[in-house]
Design goal:
Layout lengths: L1 H17 L1 E10 L4 E3 L9 H12 L13 E3 L7 E8 L9 H6 L8 E8 L3 H5 L5 E4 L4 H8 L3 E8 L5 H22 L2 E9 L2 H14 L1 H6 L1 H14 L15 E2 L5 E2 L5 H29 L12 H7 L1
Amino acid sequence: MMKSLFFLTFASIVFVVDAATKVAVIELGKGGTVRRTTAKSIESSVDGVASFWNALHGSGRRRLQHPGMTVVPDLFRKADSSVVIGVSGSGVDLSTMPLVAGLVSDESKNGVVGHMEISGHHCHALLSHLDQLEEAESLSIDLLEKHAKISGISGMKIVVDTPRASALDQQISVALLEMDEQAKASGQTIVVNLVVEESEDTGASSHRRLEGGGEEEGQEGGEQGGGEGGADNANGDGSSGQFAGYYGYGYYNAYGEWVTPYKTMFQIQYFNVVLWTSVGLTLILFSSIFMMMYMPLEPDTLLFGESAKLMED
């Protein structure tokens, strides 16, 4: 009896954990407003994704983003608009939605910059962070264009059942393709955040398929990967940990020091103050030496011994 109860409890835990909310960050148009970091783990949280959205379109002073995330906004380029497409419902099955599955799993294609993943059902929690949200039954280019014209970030929520899953898959692909062409023609950049909430049944089955498909590869590369992974854990992963930094981008050098190319505003100002102060003092020093070496000499000064001659006389 106890064994059966333990097995059911364990199975229910695994069953719930398999459900996940996937976020794909897609750039349409000109691009260059979102950057992929070197972070390897795509695991995030609702607050983490919300911090990325706030940093992407935060008004006034740039808002802080959680460290260690896979995508960050560019420091100097800002997107013209951001659109969040939330897809949830009992019909969300990535096996029947190949185009959406490719967007939430494959980077460097179709404008995908990076991914984030949250364990559990969090589509509603993510969309609750948006001030402008619209519920829709389907996605069209007109609806996407309408939200793309809104300054800042806005979103739409689409609840899909099984019969409409394949149709929605095609709609998302076509709408993104047409919006990309329009944004390129107008020289704009639109950032689309595709939020896909897997149902428990489809999430569990997809995880089992992935684990089964990658079992052989995992066995073949287990020994090599284990050695490399152990070294990474020993030396510290540059994409995580307490030194992940503002953008979660960096690495440990051979001396165990944390190195990151990003600088805080204080570091930038301090560098400029020290640099130009040093340049100014150096110019003053060499100018003084030059003026002293070539200053005009008068014959009745001590430099020519005239005073000594007068004393002898």
